[in-house]
Queue: 3 jobs
Job 1
Amino acid sequence: MPGGVAIKPGVAGGFVQFRVENEYDRLQSVLMHRPGREIERLTHDNIKAFLFEDVPYLRRMQEEHDAFVSRLDEQGVQVVFLEALLAEVLSDVEVRRSLVDEVCAVEHLPGVRDDLAIADHWDAGELTELLFAGLTAAEYTERTGKRVNGGGEEHFLLPPVPNAYFSRDPAVVVRDAAISCKMHYRQRVRETLLTRAVLEYHSEFRDNAITYGGSDEPTEDRPFTIEGGDVIVISSAAVLVGASERTRSETIERLAIKCFGVGGVERLYEIPIPTERAFMHLDTVFTVLD
């Protein structure tokens, strides 16, 4: 089961303080995304485009995810859901506009930006689901009364992000700061935007530092890609980062400089992943045990 963003919070001043010193101490809190309607958007015709090899069965995925969350709860781990926090931050008009602007710019969709940015057609909860599940031309016409030419009614104006349940990839916590990652595949870029909006704007998280990839650092973006699955915290002083298909060596160099200044990291090691496994993340070929 894909993991989430490990938080291990300590409350300070009324907000959640990030703190992850290794991969094996007892987990206290984790940010996850429950698979939703975006999975139902997958068909045998489009799975390759969305980086899937087969069409998953949503109900079964949700049952397995719920069982995993239940097991975490039994162990005293607090599970925080990305979609719930995102709906909360989207109730802020300025945050909603900012995020919609970013999403529409990435998706080259300026024509629907204003309709998504105001709550007349979609409230905060509905917009949250839309940002994960996507928006077809027919759905857009039904809500707004505006017709879209070309592509057919089932054409995606805004494609879904079915990989969003791999919630470790768009962000990861290292020591006491977060890395807002930059996805290699364009189909997954929106996952970073949604997660970063929660980290930067939600009242429980916004006072934490972002080591790399914050919205105030526009140069820390593509082509300097990095994904959370390639980042492993092995101790309070040391971090491993896999140089893979999806995490560039140039990014690791930039990240190292930032980590030494923010987050208390003393050593950062670049781990080249063999060519035949370069499509995999470091956390799938390497595990840290206590």
Note: Residues 9-14 have pLDDT under 50 and may be disordered.
Job 2
Amino acid sequence: MKSNILTKGLLLLSACTLLFFSACTDLEVEGTDSIILEPNEDGFTAGDPTQLLEAALNDLSAFTDQANIYSLSQHTSDEMIPPTRGVDWGDNGVWRTLHQHTWDPTHAYVLGAWNQLNERAFKTNQILASNPSAEQEAQAKWLRAFYVYQVADLFGVVPFREVDEGVDVDPRVFSRTEAIDFAISDLEAALPNLPGDGPSNDNTGPNKAAAHLLLSRIYLNRAVYNSADAAGPYTHDSGDMQKVIDNVDAIAQYGYALEDEYFKVFTKDATSEIILVSNQGSGQNRWMMTLHYSQNPSGWNGFTSLASFYDKFDENDPRIGNYPTPDGSEFSGIGRGFLIGQQYADDGSVLVDERTKLDLSFTRDVPIAGAATGKGIRAIKYHPSDHGPYRIMRYGEAYVNKAEAQFRSGDTDGAIATLNELRAARGAPSISSLTEESLLDERGFETYWEGIRRTDQVRFGTFATTWEEKTITDPTRVLFPIPQQALDSNPNLVQNAGY
């Protein structure tokens, strides 16, 4: 969709009038999703809270894209690699530098994520300053907490401007701890007035379950956010872990339960796990970014998984994937889960790579540069034949959050029981033991390619290790740099260590 360039001083999202401050340069926002207002001289503008909330909910579509926010969370992790194939996906190294941990403050997606998150945080303050109803206020506070958490998680600080401050005031900067405490306060204030909606593919606005799940994420990571050294080590407070457990347990009262088939979670027929979806973006991007040109539908032949991550799965765990019957009668020739080896057409015939004229077979190995078209294991959760809207939050994550909190509280037996309940619902074999390493694996089995792996690896202390095509072990990479344009605009911002 063509973007409008917002110019300083004229539009709602001018960089110099953001309550949560991004770079003081022209910012790109999807014009159809924005309410254009003129600020008065002190920077405050009231508007129609219904329209403003609708626009803010539309903006959750940022999480459906393969670039910016998602790329910082996934391409930097051990779950995904963005190989360059000839001239395809080179893009001046923008993908490779993320995977290899060699990004810098001028990286396009670092700036893009910073701008997107801070712009969206500003919209929530427009809602809160526009006489919203109690429910609208609660949903706006949930959204603000969600974005504050995201900025703090990725960048370690959150710039903040009061709604009645003029454009000449340099935004102050919340520390990581201050930002997370602010997000928790917003969520606790929002909870009583959020709707108590049960699971549905139509959950396009935050509800009580979304607040509980977000609180469980935040408390699970609170030791990271409170650490004097962003790279750790981290000391997990037992009280925080109990709050994770309590918030997860609270979700069930609204009717949420695990699906009895894993890939059903991502279909239009999902009924029991869906907490929050994007009303603007489907799961289409997630298959387009990985499927081969010769598959039906044709994809962009981009991102793949790493063999070392794929090898962690038990072959009897259905979450690793299922494949079409030889005659293609079960579903289309595209499988679900990890796609490896020979690929098939819809009629069950062997699929041929239209470019090389060879049988299309996805290989385990994949170099980050100079990759042949069939290199790399693909992953499909949203299937072209029956995909639902893009999931922002779902109930399966709650189980791995609870299990980790139990484990970190010393209740290993309880953690095993929680994971085995999840595994039973997925049809996977049960486990009888658990270590910190295998617990991280369990999180990956349930949530791979869903945009949270980097945060998990940081918390588990594995982000500064090596994997295929990644040798950098610099611990300061647990935080991204403050974009150079933002530093140039706000003297209260200080660059993160290592940049």
Note: The first helix runs from residue 49 to 58.
Job 3
Amino acid sequence: LYPFAAFIGIGNSNYVFDDKITTGSSLNEMANPEIKWETTTVSNIGVDLSLWSNLNFSFEYYQRRTTDILLRLDIPKIIGLTAPYQNAGIVENKGWDMSLAYRNRAGDFNYSIAGNISDVKNKVVDMRGVLRSDRQVNNEGYPIGSFYGYVADGFFQSEAEVSGHATQFGNVAPGDIRYKDLNNDGTINNQDQQVIGSPIPRFTYSSNIDLEYKGISLSVFFQGVGKADGYLSGHGIMPFFEGSTIQEYQRDSWRPDNTGAEFPRLAFNESNNIQNSSFWLKDASYLRLKNVQLGYSFPKSLLKDKVQHLRIYTSGQNLFTVDRFWPGFDVEAPVGNAGWYPQMKVYTIGLDVRF
């Protein structure tokens, strides 16, 4: 919690005195009193236009560079303590934002349409050579938190293909996922892993439409992202994982009579098909109808003196989503969390009265 200060852990270590184990205390983690806050430098250029009092346009190009990011750099193991945090990392974001809005009226009909889109390229500039070989890594030259794993190359279709390929994991059989031997050493291991995708969207966009006619109003809001990757693990991708059920889309598993299946063969207590790989990577771009509201405001001529405003409305949230993610799972679920509860459709009917 406080990496700038050293703390003694009480009761978390055991010592032997007179052939008896005694609970004691110890210093387990190094501190660094010299650490400081990260520093972010932003440079940008943009333009804002307003034309005919109806049309507004803005565009901005920016570059954001964050330095002194806290990292645990490698230290000699002989020290026996967890490495301290140091101000060492550098991350860069480059991109642009653009928005366009138009509003006008035609008699009693008022309307406005607005939209915006942004593009960002995230890149780790310097991590002092630190390589974290987990499902997500911060590798220099790639987006922060990039996906890391094996490159899938279809399914094994026969025993001959299995025996003629590099050694993989467990008892490999036809119908299992085949991985590329990137270094051609005849064995699939962590040396054959690489960056396979990124959960950071390149594009984010939204659009808002507002219409009004003689007290009737309609508001529609869309939002989405483009060029992003998603990854679910556990029961999200493997049938019967840890006693879970099977999803309908997972029924299309490899069998000798179904060699063109979407999923590998059903293999219990085997590790080959559950490795972190590009096979389980999925397109996480989407378009979502986030909110729709339809209402009617009664004219004052129909209201009593004490009532200043009366409006009835109905609205809906998350009415539909267009995506190519795993069926039944929320495209915005955190990385690897197949147990994430999806966003629900919400319908609302309301009455707004002001006296």
Note: The mean pLDDT is 89.
